[in-house]
Amino acid sequence: MTAPAAVGVDRATKHYPTPAGPIRALDGVTVDIAAASSVAITGVSGCGKSTLLGLIAGLEAPSAGRVTIDGEDVSGMSERARAQLRRRRLGLVFQSDNLQPFLTALENVGLQLALGGAADGHDRCMELLVDLGLGDQADKLPDQLSGGQRQRVAVARALVHRPSLILADEPTGSLDAGNAGAIVDLLRGAQREAGTTLVVVTHDPQVAAAMDRILTLRDGRLVGDTDRGSDGA
Amino acid sequence: MRRYVWRDLVRNPRRTLASLVGVTLGIALLSAVLFFIDGSQATMTERAIAPLALDMQRVLGAPLGGGLRFEQRVLGSSKALREGATVRVQLTIANRGSVPANEVVINDEPALPLTYVHDSTRLDGRRLRDSGGQIPLAQGLARSGMNIGTVRPGETVRLSYGARATRPVPAVGELKLRATISTRENVVPVRANAPAPATLERLRDTIATLPGVASADSLSFVDLPGGSLRVGRTVVHDPVRLFAFDERYARRYPSIRIVRGSIAARSALLSSEAARTLAARPGQRISLRLPGGRAPLWLPISGVTDLSRAKPLFSSRKTSRLEDFIYVPNSVVVSSQTFRRVVTPAFRAAAAAVGSQLKTFPLSELDVLVERSRLATDPARALAQSRSVARSIDAVAPGQDLLIDNLSNTLAVAKADAAVGRRMSLFLGLPGAVLAAFLAAYAGAILAGAQRREQANLRIRGAHGGHLRRMLAYRTLVLAGLGSVLGAGLGLASATLALGAGTLWSAPAADLAVSALVACAIGIVTTALALYLPGHRALRREIHGERAELGPARAQTRRRLLAYAGLPAAVVVVGVMAWDAAAFDPPSTSVSTGRSVTLPSRLLIAPLAAWLGGMAVAVPGAVALLSRLRLPSGARFGSPVAGTLVRSIRRRSRALGTGIAGVGLVVAFGMAIAMFSGTYDAAKAADARFTVGADLRVVPSVLSARPHPPSYASKLEVAGVAAMTPVVSKLDNAVLIGPHDQDRATLTAIDPDGFARVAALSDAFFAGGSASRAIAALHDRRALLVDAGAADALSIEVGDHVDVLLARATTHQKLVRFRVAGLFERFPGFPEGTDLVANLDGYAAATRTHEVSFFLGRAADGSDAGLARAAAALRTGPGRSDAIDVQTRATALDKEQSSLTALNVRGLVALDWLYTMLMCAAVIAIFVFGLLLQRRREYMALLAQGMRSGELRTIVMGESAVVVALGLVAGLLVGTGMAALLVDVLRPIFVLRPSLAFPARDIAVLLAVAAAATLVCASAASALLRRLRPAELLRET
Asked: pLDDT per residue over B79-89, tens digit each?
């Protein structure tokens, strides 16, 4: 018996209405992503990568088709259930850190734990920040950190509640090569250590090459699916 | 570039609307107030002159006529005089009348540049000695004239004196000769070479045809002593006033009510009181005894008239007391012909008689009504018109009589009130401009932050700083111009709704146009600056500006220092200035002297300074409070919503400060308006109650044939009336005799127990500070309360014993010794003042009179409805069988108040209140949607982390609620201070010192609007959040 895919996308279509008529951002994409695997979604700008990620994260609902996570139909979930899914089982990282500017690094990470229902996650947050080399920056506001540091805090926020699925949208897009490599290493490390599924949207071939599998989108359609097995390590 | 800006504005309607709403509402408030004042002023003329009984009175200076002719000329001179030349000035007095002119006084000095030649005065050729080296015709410091004694009929007297030119005189004819003549019969000095005294008829015929004059009617009257009027053997023992006017006059002034018969030639009308006293009826004959020793005048009675409200007849003719209604109950009206042929000659003969003791003289006047419909609606222009009419009336046979111009006096007061109204707009309208600027700046700052990204894109595409600044300028001009024009339109619409189209559009179109232009100009300038400056600042700021929001900055410290020290200091300076100017002391108002309420503009700036200064202190205080909010203990984050909310509020307290300032400014203004409005209404009600004396005043009509003793009060205690008390009072009905001097006084007699139960008493009225103690002192029948001013004038103190002549000038008058038991500043029921208050029983026993002047009553239910029910019960009860006039505090409009009340302050305040509500909602909406615009990525990130939209809504609502709540608290505190200052500044328009009211209902409405706006906006924001595309937003860098 085949284990259910961590992420299942079945003929997912997404239209956006505009004054000039609807734009088809995603057009019948079907793909399964195995648990504990790492997948890169690549393609040119506007091909639908981020839209696909948004559908998987339950931030948006598909116009047609469906998305499942661990066999559960995300697109059919209530808003409350989707929120519950995100706060407990998903970790999201974006190109921009999207940290809350009024929370310290520690609090930004701690908020994710609090959302997951943890009463006191201080030690877990500090441990993670120390692991990420941010132990002495924990009480600083995002504005007082460098871009690389902020993105590491964002990664910590995505990992702190030990999610089963990490979704990263261009996580290295605004970082220099050194910081970008560090962030990819962090994500891959976490994926391997905890058996987490990692889906990374990127147009950086180096980042894509670090993943087990590479999906290529063009004009909202899946046009390439390269399984690199353990080569991606 | 212009096209880009235009498309940006059109394609982002929510942003454009957010920028426009504040400007539009603020300018709408400003312009609505300006339009409202224009409209109110357009009816001020009509309202100001409506109660005026007589527009103008031309009072004859020589009512007894007289045949004296007085000429002055320079003898034997050529046309010019060289320096040093002497001439002779001759004065000729010729009596061409039939009676002697007694005590003829000639007053003259040489006309400049002539000087008197010593010892050159001659009387009929006889040399007169100089007096102290001065011309005998102008002696002493007062330059008094010379009494030449009696000039008999047919006699001519010649006076002459020499004069020398001190410098060349080019034309002798241009010398300003200034000799005057006066006699015992005609005490008003008449100039030499004056035209022959004009007759009343001639004056009337000439003046009636003047442009602007609607009518001119002759009126003559004279007072006759008691005993002058009788029918058969029945005599009127009190003084009698004899009037002469025709039927046309009676028709012109409807307050003259002929209740039986009619006016007829060679007959007499009797006043109701005289007819009752004499038990006379039409057809009987009256006998009038006139001075001069002639036989009595016999006339048939043609009718009975009620003159008790005839202001044209009984308004005082003394220039110092023109507003006094001095009623003489026993009056007779005869025809003008009878007066001219019989009455005037009788007095002339009496005046001419040697040793004459005549105390009153006939007075003849023309009562002129101006064409009121042709007067401009604006009091200032109407005043110019009325003065022009007065000048043309004065120009008819000038120099012999006196013109009393009541119309111009009234319009001068109205004009000043109109100016006060304009100044009121300083307080009621300018905040609109301030709020427009604030809201525009607030919205501008939010938008500028949101546009940073677009501007960065434009820069990448080649736009430089100049381009961006120009685009900002275009956007600012469009928003400020459009907002101001829309605001002016909205202001016009709301003023039309408040005043009615008829009233508003009766204002001159030019005035309305000026108001619109002023509102637009102020709006464009203030909001353009408010929109441009934040935008310009944002252009210079780096993309990541959160540091400024979260960390301390030196500029902020300076601003805080200014807020903590500078603005309050400015408020203190303004307050001291106001105090120093003693402008809080209410000046008295009087139409007769043409004075109105004074309201210096600087005092109206004081509440505005308190408004801005108060908020400048309150907002940093609120921010400091927020920045000290307790965070969850230890390293706990706490609940996601509470933990996020508390940290956001604490660490972004300064950013919230702007929202607090916005809500606070609007609420403070609204609070001040509500409190002022409540105080104004309460003060007006208190003034009305003070004017009436209690809830109700019942005045027996002169038409009533019944006696009204004090016991009649019990008959008036009908359903709805809790208590009634009798009061006796009459103008100048007593003489107060102090240790060194004496004076006429108005005495009021009351029943102390009854009065204490019903009257609108206040401790503030009495010098000792206790109303109950002062009134209780009157249980002693020989105790007297004295007006503090009267006591001061006559050097009377509490505890002194004084003599008072009671029931002065009546057959009941009696001298009684009283002990001064207390002093009072004001007395309820007597807005124009009473001098003495005594015990009614004591007064009745001393004078043996039992007729009461009026009764004061307390309604069982003090509400307006209860009062109306009590008044109705009185009218349908005792009023059915007895002629009584029922006044209530609702019907008795504060006559003592300034005509500023005509400005309809209530309407103005209602307009302000409406815009306060709208702006309160607008500022909350701008804050909430501003949050949404500025923090949407934060919210989306929270959503992506797993926060539910309901929790997000709680955070938005929580933050908004904190801002609104603190804004409300700050606004309520600052508004209370503003209202206290404003009420103090406007104290002169009230009779009694108003105490600050706290209108709970209005404030509850304001709070409800704020709460509803917060709820609605937060819900709408939450709905908008759901429509955003998180994936797209979170991808943005």
From this structure: 788 888 888 89
pLDDT at B312 over 80: yes
Burial environment of residue B94 by CB neighbours within 10 A (0 to 12, 13 to 18, 19 or more) = middle
How far is the C-alpha of B881 from the C-alpha of B981, rounded, in Å? Answer: 51
Q: Is B717 left (phi over 0), alpha (psi -120 to 50) or beta?
A: beta
- Residue corresponding to tokens 């005092």: B603
Tell me the two tokens of residue B952.
């997000």
Estimate to the nearest angstrom the gap between the alpha carbon of A195 and the chain centroid: 15
The total of other beta-carbon atoms located within 10 Å of residue A76's CB is 12
Could you list the beta-strand ranges (E) of B834-920.
836-839, 854-859, 884-888
Contacts A98 to B, Cβ<8 Å? 937-938, 940-941, 944, 1034
Q: Which residues of B touch A107 (CB under 8 A)?
A: 637, 643, 647
Q: How far is CA B392 from CA B58, B213, B396, in A?
A: 12, 10, 7
What is the phi-psi region of residue B644: left when phi exceeds 0, alpha when psi lies from -120 to 50, beta otherwise?
alpha
Residue in the structure block whose two tokens are 């009204």: B708
Q: Which residues pair with B382 in a beta bridge?
A: none
- Residue contacts between A and B (CB atoms, under 8 Å): 119
**Is B651 an 8 Å CB contact of chain A?**
yes
- pLDDT tens profile A178-202: 778 888 888 888 888 888 999 999 9
Take residue B539 and report the two structure tokens written for it. 């252009």
All residues at 6 or more sequence positions from B623 whose CB lies less than 8 Å from its CB, including other chains = B653, B654, B656, B657, B660
Question: What Å distances lie between residue B6 and B1, B16, B287, B444, B474, CA to CA?
Answer: 9, 10, 93, 16, 9
What percent of chain B has a predicted confidence (pLDDT) above 90? 25
User: Is A111's CB within 8 Å of B1036's CB?
Assistant: no
Burial class (CB in 10 A: 0-12, 13-18, 19+), B408: buried
Least confident residue range of B192-196, B250-254, B312-316, B739-743:
B192-196
Measured CA to CA, the distance from residue B346 to residue B282 in angstroms comes to 26
Are B701 and B308 in contact by the 8 Å Cβ rule? The answer is yes
Q: Is B559 on the interface with A (CB under 8 A)?
A: no
Work out the pLDDT band at B545, boundaries 50, 70, 90.
very low
Structure token digits, residue B1016: 């609605």
CB-nearest to A57 from B547, B638, B944 is: B944
Structure tokens at B670: 């609204």
In whole angstroms, what separates CA A57 from the centre of its chain?
8
B547, B652, B1035 ranked by CB distance to A95: nearest: B1035
Of residues B26 and B357, more confidence is placed in B26
Q: Is A60's pLDDT higher than 90?
A: no
Tokens of B430: 């300018």
Chain B residues touching A87 at Cβ < 8 A: 945-947
Nearest chain B Cα distance for residue A108, angstroms: 9
Of the candidates B439, B596, B431, B592, the one whose C-alpha atom is nearest the C-alpha of residue B522 is B431
Order of strands across the sheet that contains A165-169: A90-94, A165-169, A197-201, A38-42, A213-218, A221-227
Task: Classify the C-alpha dihedral B1017-B1018-B1023-B1029 as positive or negative.
Answer: positive
- State both tokens at A136: 């002495």
Nearest chain A residue (CA) to B1036: A96
Q: Which residues, at least 6 apart from B722, have a Cβ–Cβ distance to it below 8 Å?
A: B757, B758, B857, B858, B859, B860
Helices (H), B885-985: 905-945, 949-985
Phi, psi dihedral angles at B84 (to 5 degrees)? 95, -15
Structure tokens given for B860: 């069982």
Q: In the structure encoding, which two tokens stand for residue B656, read together?
A: 């919230």
Contact (Cβ atoms closer than 8 angstroms) between residue B436 and residue B22: yes
Q: What does the alpha-carbon distance between residue B84 and residue B169 come to, in Å, rounded to a whole number?
A: 10
